[in-house]
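Please review the protein record below. Let me know how this chain folds according to its tokens.
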Amino acid sequence: MPEYYRESPFSRAWMRLVQIEEKPIEFFGKHSFEQIPPLANYSEAVLRRLLNKVIKTPDELRGMDTTIWRVRPRTQYDHDEEILLTTRSVSIPVSRDSIDLQSDTILHISDPHFAVKKNRVKHIWRFESEVSAGKGKSTLAEIIAAGLARHRIGLVVITGDLTFTGEEDEFSEASTFITRLLGVLNLDRDRLVIVPGNHDIRWTKTETYDERAEVTEAPEEAKKNYEGFYRRLYGHTPNATLSLGRRYQLPSGITLEICALNSSSLETGPQFLAGMGRVEEKARTPLARAKYGAACACSPSSPHFDRGP
């Protein structure tokens, strides 16, 4: 037995697995951190938030650079906010920090349209959550991985329409797909750029997408589900215009600056009407101040005009 295991208070014997059964894990939501995990590169204030906090999802543990946690059954006094950490994380939507990439190759994805309920057929691949259903059918992450073969990817850019009607369940499926894809590509969320499309902003509560439907939702409510998806994915709050700015250093020596601008707004002005796929002027300002603009990724369409599939 290696010295590491001999000295560990958690290791006393080797085990041989003879059978693995697929059963629901009744752990998440029922246990809390008894001690603060030993994580480097985080402030004391951030780590203190983990003490006596309910462990809500597997993503919370996946983002921590450690292998052992001290936990206990949850109590009524524990707080249950979801806190997602990564070993290195950009904590703001627009950042000047330079992020190194492992490859010059960029994977661009658009319009996956994860859909649920009666719109399920709009997404033809099996969902990652559909473990027993669709046996023999591949998920989108598996198809992409197979298509890439052994190509090493440095950055993933997803330009909108992750969902079909912007429902929370659809964003949940999109988030699971992104987590799986990044895991397959050995990338973290710093090497991911997303921007919403017209299908991701809910200007109406109708269950089917209709580009001619009358707008019934105020901007705050229309983008609420996307904001929640973004917050869970990146671990920080999106800005008012849902824009994203990143600076990347490619292995070839090229500096790549990306400004991801949301064009699904209802801004109006003297020379234009709402719903024309216009990028709000206030969305450009924070990126211009950060000196971005070498490359621009916009959402594919406006709330009333869908150029994508």
